[in-house]
Design goal:
The complex is a heterodimer of chains A (437) and B (80). By secondary structure, chain A is an alpha+beta fold. Chain A has 3 domains: 153 residues, 2-Layer Sandwich (Alpha-Beta Plaits); 161 residues, Sulfite Reductase Hemoprotein, domain 1, CATH 3.30.413; 74 residues, Alpha-Beta Plaits. Chain A has a 5-stranded mixed β-sheet. Chain A has a 4-stranded antiparallel β-sheet with strand order 2-4-6-5, with no helix packed on it. In chain A, strands 1-3 form a two-stranded antiparallel sheet. In chain A, strand 5 and strand 6 form a beta hairpin. Chain A is globular. Chain B has a two-stranded antiparallel ribbon with strand order 1-2. The model of chain B has no long low-confidence stretch (mean pLDDT 87). The chains are: A alpha+beta (437), B alpha+beta (80).
Chain lengths: 437, 80
């Protein structure tokens, strides 16, 4: 039986959606009942006091968590987010309530054995409350005490072959979609690239050396299942540079009603007959599709890879064969300088072999940001402050029309002397020969 | 010029002590500024060694990380 009265939190349970309050109450009952006879290493009342403390915060209209402190296990500069309650006598179960971030497997594929181990570990050494998965993508284990941290780390690394994730001014745990493992749209092996970069940059993940946080996310295609374009400082989005493959016979089957469009997603109501003109051609953002005389034509030069047509008719249209990825830099949520989406920096790069070209780019960006970035400044803010041209310069990327986000927005181009034929020292006589004073 | 550990360590500790009146936690960039000729990664190696020797400790708010002398200022042990 819960020891705190929580009328304000109880009200949250009356809404239409599943409630975290109900979930925590379930765990409170479970911990007090302790059907498996577990020798809890942190107070059994932890979830109970958590709800009690939250109720108090609702009553007071302010938080009762203190901020900062413990950062991880010995030698690690991240992975654990220290939380301490400012009412420890009244709520002893949450005097310490540290969050442990655990690296999730690429594409979030689990064996049930691993999940059981994880739950057993967290029942014994934590609150029993988890968040699968946090906004970062990690497995988030909510609420434990300082003495348990090294024990949890030992179990994770030695028995479960896993590791802590990133927090603080570190490389955060990289996250990817499930890519080629299950998806026909994947333009590169997003799981492999995610894994390889995670392994390569272990030091950046565990020991802070950046001005602020840095996130990689990997989308196998532009449908963006992990929304890398908005959520990561460096976003890797699969694309192709040849042509969308079109099977005209199958297009005709869609038009004739033999195959349901959108894989049958709009079959539950009276959506009417499939209209290829309205649902595909007119929806193309760059207007590069034409359907005439029973033939679908795509002007691939103008295609912006939105993939809408492919999603509507996945059996008739397929991604191109010459595949790779685009790299975008600088997405972030608000805090300092307002939200930003990533800026396209590398329009196309192959994602093959040991990914050395990609790593070279990553490191050139980091070197610049580590040197020029101000404290608590995301790379997107450095980019905005010093200019996109500077990023191209430090990464050795040739300017490309695809870098232009808004044509004619800023017509001023600043040339450097070495970029101008003959430099600044031109003959005035030559000039006057053509131009009168 | 490559960093010599003991010299760099002394520079870092002296710097922290010189600021001890006002600050107990420092950003990574505060240390790279002490070694303008060196690459950030080399400075990081020195800091990591100092962490491993327990001269320095990490501090984090969850979003931002800082470094401080072991036992100085407000720290986890002092939170109990």
């Amino acid at each position: 039986m819960a020891k705190h009265k929580t009328p304000l939190l109880d009200q949250l349970e009356s809404g239409p959606w599943p409630s975290f309050v109900s979930d925590i109450k379930q765990e409170i009952e479970h911990r007090y009942a302790n059907p498996k006879g577990i020798d809890y290493q942190i107070p059994a009342e932890c979830p109970d006091d958590l709800l009690g403390l939250l109720e108090l915060s609702f009553v007071d209209g302010e938080t009762h968590w203190k901020h900062g402190g413990i950062v991880g296990v010995f030698g690690y500069g991240g992975g654990v987010i220290g939380r301490y309650c400012d009412q420890p006598e009244k709520y002893p179960g949450v005097a310490h309530f540290h969050t442990v971030r655990v690296a999730q497997p690429s594409g979030m594929f689990y064996k049930t054995e691993f999940l059981r181990q994880l739950c057993d570990l967290w029942e014994l050494r934590g609150s029993g409350l988890t968040n699968m998965h946090g906004a970062t993508g990690d497995i988030v284990l909510l609420g434990t005490t300082t003495p348990q941290l090294e024990e949890i780390f030992f179990e994770l690394t030695h028995k479960m072959n896993n590791d802590l994730g990133g927090s603080g001014s570190n490389l955060r745990t990289p996250a990817c979609c499930l890519g080629e493992s299950r998806c026909q749209y994947a333009c590169y092996d997003s799981q492999e690239l995610c894994y390889q970069l995670t392994q390569e940059y272990q030091d950046e993940l565990h020991r802070p050396a950046f001005p602020y946080k840095f996130k990689f996310k990997f989308d196998g295609c532009s449908l963006g299942c992990v929304a890398s374009i908005a959520r990561s400082d460096m976003s890797f989005i699969g694309t192709w540079r040849d042509e969308i493959r079109v099977d005209q016979k199958t297009v005709a089957a869609y038009v004739g009603g033999e195959i349901a469009p959108n894989a049958g997603a709009y079959a539950g109501r009276d959506w009417g007959k499939f209209d290829i003109q309205a649902e595909v051609v007119d929806r193309c953002p760059s207007q590069c599709i034409r359907y005439e005389g029973g033939k679908l034509e795509i002007n691939n030069k103008e295609c912006v890879r939105c993939m809408h047509c492919i999603c509507v008719m996945p059996r008739a249209l397929k991604i191109g064969n010459d595949r790779g990825l685009s790299i975008l830099v600088g997405a972030k949520a608000p805090i300092l300088d307002g939200p930003q989406m990533g800026s396209l920096t590398i329009p196309f790069i192959k994602a093959e072999g040991d990914f050395s070209e990609i790593k070279e780019f990553v490191e050139s960006v980091w070197d610049w940001w580590m040197e020029e970035g101000k404290n608590r400044e995301r790379i997107g803010e450095t980019l905005k402050r010093l200019g996109f041209a500077r990023l191209l310069e430090v990464t050795g990327t040739a300017p490309d029309p695809r870098h232009v986000k808004e044509p004619r927005h800023n017509p001023y181009i600043f040339w450097k002397e070495e970029e101008v034929e003959g430099g600044w020292n031109k003959s005035i006589a030559d000039y006057r020969a053509k131009h009168q004073r | 010029m490559a960093l010599v550990y003991e010299e760099a360590k002394k520079t870092i500790v002296d710097f922290i002590n010189s600021k001890a009146k006002n600050k107990s936690k420092f950003y990574f960039n505060d240390f790279t500024a002490l070694f303008p000729e060196e690459k950030g990664r080399d400075v990081k190696k020195i800091l990591t060694q100092m962490i491993n020797e327990e001269v320095l400790v990490f501090w984090s708010s969850g979003s931002t990380s800082m470094y401080g002398l072991h036992g100085a200022g407000k720290h986890a042990d002092g939170e109990d």
